[in-house]
Specification:
With 193 residues, the protein is mainly alpha-helical. It has helices at residues 5-9, 23-31, 72-85, 111-125, 139-147, 174-192; strands at residues 35-42, 59-65.
């Protein structure tokens, strides 16, 4: 929907570029493709103190994003196998899984729900709804999806324009939140009807 406008409004620092050029590839990267990130490290010296010496121990905190249909426990077990299988130079590697969560893949949206969402969006925002796949894991959704496999879900939030979440200056756009609340109420009324 935003096309290349996103890069114009939020430009990269000089020399930096996205992991993929095509917008479709970027969506797939954040939703269906696995990604391994190092989120913490211990045992590495500060650059000012670093030298060409062996360290007795290095610990890394890893985060592995998996596609929503992959079992989290099985993925953690396989990652352990891979990392511990054949470390180079006789190093000892030990992997301990912290939290392994299985993702959730939403069922196909029923026509009544799609219609109700579009009508509510047009009424309160003046435009049809926009859909976005998200790559984060919300374990609660996986539990609900397993318990109620035939249920329809509307998962939304107030993180629209002029909002900032998960930061020291977290804030929401109140007008946007009011419109979204009214739109969700309309969808619930349509479902009840």
């Amino acid at each position: 929907m935003l096309g290349q406008e996103i890069h114009a409004r939020f430009p990269f620092v000089p020399g930096m570029r996205p992991m993929a050029e095509g917008l479709e590839a970027l969506v797939l990267n954040r939703t269906w493709r696995p990604a391994l990130s190092v989120t913490g490290a211990e045992g590495l010296p500060l650059p000012a103190n670093a030298g060409n010496v062996l360290r007795p121990r290095t610990s890394l905190a890893l985060s592995l994003r998996i596609p929503p249909t992959v079992d989290g426990e099985k993925a953690a077990a396989r990652l352990k196998e891979i990392l511990e299988a054949d470390p180079p130079y006789g190093a000892r590697v030990r992997f301990e899984a912290g939290q392994a969560a299985t993702g959730w893949h939403a069922p196909i949206t029923a026509p009544w729900l799609e219609k109700a969402i579009d009508e509510a969006s047009n009424k309160h925002f003046g435009k049809p709804a926009m859909w976005m796949g998200e790559g984060g894991t919300i374990p609660f959704m996986a539990m609900l999806g397993e318990k109620f496999p035939q249920a329809q879900f509307l998962i939304t939030g107030v993180l629209g324009p002029h909002s900032n979440a998960h930061g020291p200056n977290e804030f929401l756009d109140i007008e946007y939140a009011k419109k979204l609340t009214a739109a969700v109420a309309d969808v619930l009324a349509a479902q009840a009807g």
